[in-house]
């Protein structure tokens, strides 16, 4: 009886070893590039690359939340998940209408606080020119009077690239939405 227990243990151990040898290790690297102003008040561009063989996509939102190099905010995570799972893209440029990351949210849009500068637009255009698709995802906040002028400026810059510009659309309201909108947690509707 004692011998049978050892034999059963040996059979179990052999089975466990077979399980281990049938595992597959998958490794992945996401390369991050971020461009900041010298004083680090502005983040102009954040690029995440996971497959250099596939085209890039630019996503334009309102403000950069964090540095985005080592720490990721929920918006960045949701965008990465959507684009990586779509299998159409291998990189994303995350750019914003406003590039200032240090000013409190309530005053970011005030002109005297420099919510953006000429470098914001330079890097916005760099991202757009290097992308197959541009997704506008700044949401309903862009309808506020203090933001409308900036949206119009960016839309003017996008005119030569209008064929590749899409809007992240709320399927219920048919209006542009931000990736944090609960409706954006499903497969994205782009128009």
Low-confidence stretches: 1-7
According to CATH, the fold-level topology is Rossmann fold
How many whole angstroms does the radius of gyration measure? 23 Å
What global shape is seen?
globular
Query: What is the typical, i.e. mean, pLDDT?
Result: 87
Helix/strand/pairing class, anyone?
A: alpha/beta
How does CATH name the architecture?
A: 3-Layer(aba) Sandwich
Description:
- By secondary structure, this protein is α/β, with parallel strands linked by helices.
- The protein has a single domain, classed as Rossmann fold, CATH 3.40.50.
- Helix content is 31%, strand content 19%.
- The protein contains four helices and seven strands.
- Strands 1-2-4-3-5-6-7 form a seven-stranded mixed β-sheet, with helices on both faces.
Question: Topology of this protein?
Answer:
Elements: H1 2-21, E1 31-36, E2 43-49, E3 56-61, H2 74-86, E4 91-96, H3 118-129, E5 133-136, H4 145-158, E6 165-169, E7 189-190
Parallel strand pairs: 3-4, 3-5, 5-6
Antiparallel strand pairs: 1-2, 2-4, 6-7
List keywords for this structure.
7-stranded mixed β-sheet; 4 helices; Rossmann fold; UCP032209; alpha/beta; 191 residues; SCCmec staphylococcal cassette region, isolate CMFT535
């Amino acid at each position: 009886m004692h011998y049978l227990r050892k034999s059963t243990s040996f059979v179990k151990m052999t089975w466990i070893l077979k399980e281990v040898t049938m595992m597959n290790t998958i490794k992945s690297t996401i390369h991050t590039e971020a461009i900041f102003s010298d004083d680090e008040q502005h983040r102009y561009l954040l690029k995440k690359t996971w497959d250099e063989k596939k085209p890039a996509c630019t996503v334009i939102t309102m403000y950069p939340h964090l540095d985005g190099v080592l720490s990721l905010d929920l918006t960045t995570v949701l965008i990465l998940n959507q684009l990586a799972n779509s299998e159409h893209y291998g990189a994303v440029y995350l750019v914003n209408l406003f590039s200032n990351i240090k000013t409190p949210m309530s005053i970011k849009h005030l002109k005297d606080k420099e919510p953006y500068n000429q470098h914001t637009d330079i890097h916005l255009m760099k991202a757009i020119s290097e992308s197959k698709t541009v997704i506008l995802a700044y949401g309903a906040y862009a309808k506020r009077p203090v933001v409308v002028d900036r949206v119009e400026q960016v839309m003017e810059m996008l005119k030569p690239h209008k064929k590749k510009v899409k809007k992240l659309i709320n399927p219920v309201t048919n209006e542009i939405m931000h990736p944090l909108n609960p409706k954006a947690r499903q497969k994205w509707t782009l128009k």
